[in-house]
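Board work, copied verbatim: O-methyltransferase, family 2
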Amino acid sequence: MTPGELLKLSGAYWSSCALHAGVKLDLFTKLAEAPATAGEIGRATDCDLRGITMLLDALAGLELLAKQGERYEATPFSADYLSKKSERYLGHIILHHHHLMDGWTRLDQAVRNGRPTWSGPSHSQDDSVRESFLMGMFNMANQSAPLITPAIDLSARKRLLDLGGGPGTYAIHFCRHNPQLRAVVFDLPSTRPIAERTVANAGLAERISFQAGDITSDPIAGGFDVLWVSQLLHGEGPASAAAILKKGVRALLPGGLVLVQEFILEDSRTAPLFPALFSLNMLVNTTEGQSYSQGELSRMLAEAGVRDIRRLELELPSGAGIITGVAG
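↓ predict structure ↓
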């Protein structure tokens, strides 16, 4: 690394903040519909002319907008991923990242005292913050699910438990890919309205149901032959994560398939980079959460009574991986 690269790393949040502001102001939806001047966008968004001009120019510099003369428009990429009218819209996860920033600015405090700097956005009492988290998970899952569902044979399976399934994205994709499959999404009561909406929008309300509960304390009905646990365990400490897996495995019939997706660290814990940084995100936002290594997850599964444990050979975004095994 050079001094210039070091300073670029230090100031990288400037670019992030410009992107977040563009999404919060919904500039990309407007500019995907038609080109406009800074004055026109400023009036449409009730923004100061000087401020909106600077933001639009910066977003053009980031190649998220195109500028011709005095008019700005969305690029094909930003129209595809940053316009609310696109099915590929990623604005929810970007807003979730924005809501995390305040806690991250006090990372040194979290490192000193080992406690979160915020109670965590996923359980916020603010409806907009909670929705950005849940729909952000929907955004992320929609990126990975098309890679995952064809690689996992569920043709002989009938009932899937999506443990901590949030908006039900993976349940939707698994059921679309396996017409015989039914699913239950188990998550907190506050998640229910969003999950039921996404399932209904997918046309799968007759095959996917929601069970409200706290995974650490409430019972889970049995009779499933697939357990899907995606990006849930990192929010818990080792003992709680192991207990959650045991509870999930107990809900399976003998021979049930166990599938655990996480951001998986190498045994050195320094790579891949995203899971290593994600551990800090858990430090800032949870009391005990962390990223886990493949060895740690495999041991938890073995202790839960899972056999034939292995990692699927899938290349997934952000260092994610899937560890699978068979119950009983």
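The longest helix spans residues 127-148.
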